[in-house]
Amino acid sequence: MEKKTYNVAVVGASGAVGEELFRVLDEVSFPVGSILPLASARSVGEEVECQGKSYKIEELTEDVFQGKEIDIAFFSAGGSISEKYAQYAVDAGAVVIDNTSHFRMDTDVPLVVPEVNPEDIEWWEERGIIANPNCSTIQMVQLLKPLHDLYGITRVDVSTYQAVSGAGKEGMEELVRQMQDFFAFKLSESECKAFTHQIALNVIPHIDVPQENGYTKEEMKMVNETAKIMGTEFPLSATCVRVPVLRSHSEAITIHFTEGVHVDVEKSREVLDAFENVTVIDDMSKNEYPMPIISTDTDETYVGRIRKDIYADNILHIWGVADQVRVGAATNAVRIAQKWIKLKENA
Ligand code: A2P
């Protein structure tokens, strides 16, 4: 008989995304059998709570998955950890839902945003791994998909305003510490570890490793992952910028549609608002538009400032905002797991 509850491992249980995963599993009443929270030796013995029960963090080792009958293993401890340990979870019988960039572009690993390409989960068995896309990519493709279906996208240009949570707990703590140092008149002595420069009262046009083509790895993730998720080949250019916001990313997106299309702003609003997990906030007469203070701690992707280009009829400009830790990581991973369960139970 088909199992009705699922044993879940969380690798990176003490991290920003790991902690959020427990909250999301709780909120969606995920059919949890048991939880195996894993982190480095530093966190062993710390307690995590999920669905009213507490569990002690264990150390991630090569054989920790053995004999535990784990069904789903969420990995969120960095690419090198996924590279080294994901296969052990798969060998022990789990599906790995990986939040790092390590497997994303492998042709035998589905890269999934459940609202956009849920059908790709069907080939999860090729490797036993499903990849969770980059946070900036997830919230962007949720907005591109309904507009692509409506008008056919031919090019996208995006500038991001990315929160410090993208650099994990260390990034969030660094912003808070630097702000405290600012008010203590010692910002100039404050340590810059998580980012290349001071992030408090600053913006940094540099996220992830610089590439030979002049872009950064984060920018190229947006280019390559969008094509894989949407199955499209339109050109996309990204400028990724770190801003002193705690945990929601914002994006200014310019979308070019097929030559000859006359964009209807009202119709665009309608299809965006009707799309699963997308909410339109767009009334300039009342100063209403998406902002990080609205999206933080929610599972929605918000869009506003929807307006036609001044010069061309087939170009639309929009502004999207979503919680990076949730929509960009934990919630997307849990939504993948929910779809995976449905697939298994209908098999
Ligand atoms: P730990 O807290 O024990 O170092 P964040 O993205 O917020 O920085 O979190 C990173 C997560 O990855 C943490 O849970 C961290 O655990 C975990 N992690 C980092 N290095 C390792 C490792 N070598 N083995 C297992 N987990 C690790």
TrEMBL record:
The keyword NADP applies. One of its GO terms (molecular function) is NAD binding. The keyword Transferase does not apply. Pathway: Amino-acid biosynthesis; L-lysine biosynthesis via DAP pathway; (S)-tetrahydrodipicolinate from L-aspartate: step 2/4; Amino-acid biosynthesis; L-threonine biosynthesis; L-threonine from L-aspartate: step 2/5; Amino-acid biosynthesis; L-methionine biosynthesis via de novo pathway; L-homoserine from L-aspartate: step 2/3. Residues 7-124 form the Semialdehyde dehydrogenase NAD-binding domain. NADP(+) binds at residues 14-17, 42-43, 165-166, 324. GO terms for biological process: 'de novo' L-methionine biosynthetic process; diaminopimelate biosynthetic process; isoleucine biosynthetic process; lysine biosynthetic process via diaminopimelate; threonine biosynthetic process. Its EC number is 1.2.1.11. The active site is at 135 (acyl-thioester intermediate), 249 (proton acceptor). Transmembrane segments: none annotated. It catalyses: L-aspartate 4-semialdehyde + phosphate + NADP(+) = 4-phospho-L-aspartate + NADPH + H(+). It is an enzyme of class 1 (oxidoreductase). SUPFAM superfamilies: Glyceraldehyde-3-phosphate dehydrogenase-like, C-terminal domain, NAD(P)-binding Rossmann-fold domains. InterPro entries: Asp-semialdehyde_DH_CS, Asp_semialdehyde_DH, Asp_semialdehyde_DH_beta, NAD(P)-bd_dom_sf, Semialdehyde_DH_NAD-bd, Semialdhyde_DH_dimer_dom. Phosphate binds at residue 104. Keywords: Amino-acid biosynthesis, Diaminopimelate biosynthesis, Lysine biosynthesis, Methionine biosynthesis, NADP, Oxidoreductase, Threonine biosynthesis. Substrate binds at residues 162, 242. It comes from the Bacteria. Belongs to the aspartate-semialdehyde dehydrogenase family. Homodimer. Catalyzes the NADPH-dependent formation of L-aspartate-semialdehyde (L-ASA) by the reductive dephosphorylation of L-aspartyl-4-phosphate. This is Aspartate-semialdehyde dehydrogenase. It comes from uncultured Sulfurovum sp.
